[in-house]
Each structure stands twice: as C-alpha cells, then as structure tokens.
Amino acid sequence: MTALKPNTQRISIKNASPAERIVVGGLGAGLILLGLQRTGRVRAFLSSAGAIMVSSAAMGKSPYNTLAKIRRTESNDIKVDKAVTIGLPVEQLYAFWRKFENLPRFMSHLESVKEETQTRSHWVAKAPAGTHVSWDADIVEDAPGERIAWRSVEGSIVPNEGYVEFRAAPQGRGTEVRVSLIYHPPAGTLGAGVARLFGEEPAQQVEHDLRRLKRLLEVGLEPTTEGQSSGRKGLLSEGLAKLFDNGRTS
Amino acid sequence: MKALVWQGVNRVGIETVPDPQILQPTDAIVKVTSTAICGSDLHLLDGYVPSMVHGDILGHEFMGEVVEVGSEVKKIQVGDRVIVPFPISCGHCWYCQQGLTSLCDNSNPNFKLAETMWGYSPAGIYGYSHITGGYAGGQAQYARTVFADANLFKVPDHLSDDQLLFLTDIFPTGHMAAENCNIHPGDTVAVFGCGPVGQFTIRSAFLLGAEQVIAIDRFPERLDLARQAGAVTLNYEKEDVFEKLKMLTGGRGPDSVVDAVGMEAHGTGLMGVADAVKQTTRVLETERPHALRAAIMACRKGGTVSVPGVYGGLGDKIPLGSLMNKALTLHTGQTHVHRYLDRLLKHIQDGDIDPSVIITHRMPLDEAPQAYKIFKHKHENCIKCVLDPWADHSTHTQDAEKPETVEQ
C-alpha cells in the first residue's frame, strides 16, 4: 500500500493519475484508428472523441475528474478541503469532534469509530455493495480548542490522514471549522471517479457531512421532505424528484 | 385530501393525494382554511423556475388551524389559529437570529442544488420548486409545516382570514420592498407593477413617510386600486414613463424605484420580443427583466432600486452602466416575513391598512386550475384570488373524483 506524504502537499494541476492517463490515452488512440476506417460523420465523431482523450491524457487532465471536481496531489492522493461556520463556541465544537465516537453521527460513510487508547482509534467505514473497510488511526496532533490531526497506521487499506481546525468566527457567529483530508483510494483517482458515480465521492461527502454537523448542532436535526405528500405516480417523476432531493445533486 | 398539483409546464390540476403526516418531531400539521395564488406561482406554472417535478403540490400563502403537532413542538398547540410564513426559518442559525429568515442556513434540504444555481443557499420555501427544498405547498386541505415553533404565527380570532392571509407573503413583501427604498420625508417612490405586491408596496411607502408614490401598470383596474391608495398612476402603454416620471419629480427622477414585476415582465418593442424568444428556450435567458431595466434607468442619481419581483437565473442587457455611474443602491431579497408580523398585524388591527381590498376572486380549491388561468391572463379584472379548500365538498374524502385539468 502506498504510504502518504505529510498533509502539506501541493495540489497538482494534473488531476488524472498515471494509470488513467495510460488507459484514456490508449482508448483515444484506438478511437482515432477506428475512425480512420470509417467515413463521413462517424469518422468525424470517433476521431474527434479520440483526439480529446489523447490530448487530455497528454496534459494529465481528465475531463471526467474535472467535472467531478476531483483534485489530486503531486503523489497521486486525493485531497479535500472544506469549511463551515457553526453557531456554537469553539470549546464545544472541539469537545464534540475530539470524542471520535461522535463522528459517525454526521459522517455518512462511517459506521463506527472506537477510541482504543488516548491516541489510537479503530475506524469502520461503509464501502460499495454493503461491504465494510476498517483501519486504525493515530492522533498525531491535539491542540485543545484549536486543532486535531490524525493519520492511518502504516499498511491501512485506505491510507488517509486529516486535520480539523477550529477558530472563533467574527462577531459572535460561532466557530469556523476547517477540515483537510488526504487519502489514497484503492484504485487511485480512477477509484475515486468510480466512487463518485455511486454518489460517494469524498469532496462532496465531506461538504455534506459538515452541513449535517452544522444542522445537527444548531437545530438538532436535518430537515427532510422524505415521506411527504405528493401527486407523484409514475416512476419517472419519482426518480426526477429523488434526483433533486438527494442533496448531492450538483 | 385534495391538493393542487403541478403536472407540467402550464398544467395544474386538483388531485387526491395522501394526507400529510408528521415526519419530524418539530413538524405540525395545519388544516388549511384559506390559501391564495401568488404571482410567483405563475412563474412556477410557466416552468421558468427550474426543478419543478410532476406531482409537486403548489402554494406558499396559506393559513389555518393546527390539528397535530410533533413531540418537540412547545409553543404551538393543537387548535391554534395560525398563519404560515412562506420562507422557512430554523430559528437558530445566525441569519434567523438577525431576522433575515429568508436566508436561513438550515431549512433547505436541497442546499446543494441552490448553491450550484446561486452560489449559496437561501431558506426553504413551501411549494416553490426543488431548489428551495421541494417542500409540499399549502394549496391543499392539509399541509405539513416544519420547525413549527419558529414559523407558525398565532393570529387573533376577531380578524377574518381575508384580513390575515396576506401576512404570509405579499403584505410583508410589499412592506419590505418599501422599507428597502430607504424612504426619507418628502421622497417620491415609483412602483413598477400594480399587482398584489405593488399594491402593498404603495400602501407601505405612504405608511413609511413617502410624499408621492407613482404607480405604473397597464391594467385599468390595478391602476384604479393604486389611485385609491393615493398614488399617481401611469399607464405605460399610453405614456412615456421615463419622461412622465421626470415631469412628476421636477426633472430629478424618483428617489427610489421598485420593480414589483419580476421575471415575466410585459416588454414592449424589439427588446421585449428578444427577451420573450430567449426565455421560451429556458436556457438562453431565464428572465424578461424589462421592469428592472426601466427601474434602473428611471431612478434618480444616488437613489435606490428595490426589487421584490422574483428572478430565478440569468438576465440580459441589464443597464449596469446606469447602475454604476449613477451610484445607485440595489436592495433585493425574498421577504424576511417573520420580522414584520407583529408590526403589520398591528397596522391591520389599528385599521391603517385593510389587506382584503385586493381580493377580486374567491373560489373553491376544486376550481384552482381555472383560478390560475384567470389570474395568469388577468381575465375578469383579476388581481388576487383566494381559494377555500373546504368549499363545495364539505366532507373530507380520500377518493373524490378527479376534476379535469384546465389547459393554462
């Protein structure tokens, strides 16, 4: 398993992994060859699709990853930075977060977190198709009321690390919560792209989790319309409404 | 229960749908005694606000009696007579605490959709597309209301539904539009659009100390109603509005101008045609910002343009040069209904204003599709239509025959 570099890495302007570049470039070249054997519109379509893929592979930019807003670091890990302001004092936010057992209450992909010692914890996360992945993590920095940083132990199946920072927001607006995560998905950015297809791409997930935390702490619950009355009958309108109402639509 | 359902662009119908239920402990169910069709419902009807889905229950102006409350509802009780403000406040976030309830951080479940469209997400709104939460609306016999303690507002028994119903939206909306004009003694306020919101803007502008209010529309009945409130009126089909406004203000221009029209303005000339064509595509331009253009051009230097009119997406050819070089202030927003309720209820009680003067039509909910048609095309001199969910069929039935849909 790939070991992570410290969480200070610069975001690469290239968002496609080397593997993706090879796959996409190869497919693109294939399309161009295929296009050359055809005529008319088909030829034009296949060739231009192929050309786009080859050039994006050459530039290290994946159109899909750009669309999915997947960012990777120079060592091919995924990096996520998100912030939210929550109307509670810093001490309260810090205390809530420091008790890692609380994290699954707002992090939808987590099944459980168990603190085993002062610094070591065991994390269980949901994975596609009803499976689970788990790993151990250590707290690498703990500055009460300011910052908590953690990192998965060597050899984890999903190497990851992150930190959360708390800062008093101006004019009594509560606390600014800033989260930064770096992780290496099992299949690199390609894997993150596939995960995104199932609505589990990390950047969106973190954003959604932070909003859930805000609503949980400010109001006590998340608003919902699930189960309300409507005049929907067909599967099509049901599906369309669900698409709008799933909260992840972008 | 019976409810008015959006069935596609320009199609609404009355359907029998399941009764609403308490879904969260902070919910309350309201038996709707009166509900109204708002001008903004017409934007939804016409499909210019994206993210409407077949089956959505419309309606964001409604009041009634609380018939059920969730376990965490403390201030509101079964039997209370309440009005339901159209924007949903969580009651806890920074915006709600500042009284900016239409900007609530927490009440829109579909915040991501709104953020994609607008950058940040404002509050959830009942019956008002999925961008603002996808909440079922109140043009129905019952409605589920959320965060009941922070939203439902108890009203006294001695006032009628007709006097109270418009506290849910258009009265506060007109009032906030006037307040946003930053009126000083001696000021002239020009109001584009004499529909329900325009009427309340005119009346509120006088309450807030305006010396002269100039009302602009093309329908005689709406101009008549504006004159009754003390406004000078202009028919834009018969007069050159810009020149006339100059004449009425000693050549200076109005101190503030209100766009109480919004995204489906009746444009004249080539520009009006161009907007209409682009808007029909729903992609090239989502607005027909004719009134906004006129408001910006007409406003005096250093004046204020107040926009209660609803816009949803992107508009073209807005005279930004005029806005910038004349040093105008632009004030807009969905209405922070909650913060005006005590004040405006007192105005109604004291007889300063009778909101029911704008009502021209009263119809049973069963005839709501017809009411939408009359209101949209301004047939029968329609200004405001109030619906009674319980007229005609006095019994509440789950298997009522489905009345026909009226083509809009």
UniProtKB/TrEMBL annotation, chain A:
<dbReference type="InterPro" id="IPR047137">
    <property type="entry name" value="ORF3"/>
</dbReference>
<dbReference type="InterPro" id="IPR023393">
    <property type="entry name" value="START-like_dom_sf"/>
</dbReference>
<protein>
    <submittedName>
        <fullName>Cyclase</fullName>
    </submittedName>
</protein>
<dbReference type="Pfam" id="PF03364">
    <property type="entry name" value="Polyketide_cyc"/>
</dbReference>
<dbReference type="InterPro" id="IPR005031">
    <property type="entry name" value="COQ10_START"/>
</dbReference>
<feature type="domain" description="Coenzyme Q-binding protein COQ10 START">
    <location>
        <begin position="86"/>
        <end position="211"/>
    </location>
</feature>
From TrEMBL, chain B:
<dbReference type="InterPro" id="IPR002328">
    <property type="entry name" value="ADH_Zn_CS"/>
</dbReference>
<feature type="domain" description="Alcohol dehydrogenase-like C-terminal">
    <location>
        <begin position="196"/>
        <end position="264"/>
    </location>
</feature>
<dbReference type="InterPro" id="IPR013149">
    <property type="entry name" value="ADH-like_C"/>
</dbReference>
<dbReference type="InterPro" id="IPR036291">
    <property type="entry name" value="NAD(P)-bd_dom_sf"/>
</dbReference>
<dbReference type="Pfam" id="PF00107">
    <property type="entry name" value="ADH_zinc_N"/>
</dbReference>
<dbReference type="Pfam" id="PF08240">
    <property type="entry name" value="ADH_N"/>
</dbReference>
<keyword id="KW-0560">Oxidoreductase</keyword>
<dbReference type="InterPro" id="IPR011032">
    <property type="entry name" value="GroES-like_sf"/>
</dbReference>
<comment type="similarity">
    <text>Belongs to the zinc-containing alcohol dehydrogenase family.</text>
</comment>
<protein>
    <submittedName>
        <fullName>Glutathione-dependent formaldehyde dehydrogenase</fullName>
    </submittedName>
</protein>
<feature type="domain" description="Alcohol dehydrogenase-like N-terminal">
    <location>
        <begin position="25"/>
        <end position="157"/>
    </location>
</feature>
<keyword id="KW-0862">Zinc</keyword>
<keyword id="KW-0479">Metal-binding</keyword>
<dbReference type="InterPro" id="IPR013154">
    <property type="entry name" value="ADH-like_N"/>
</dbReference>
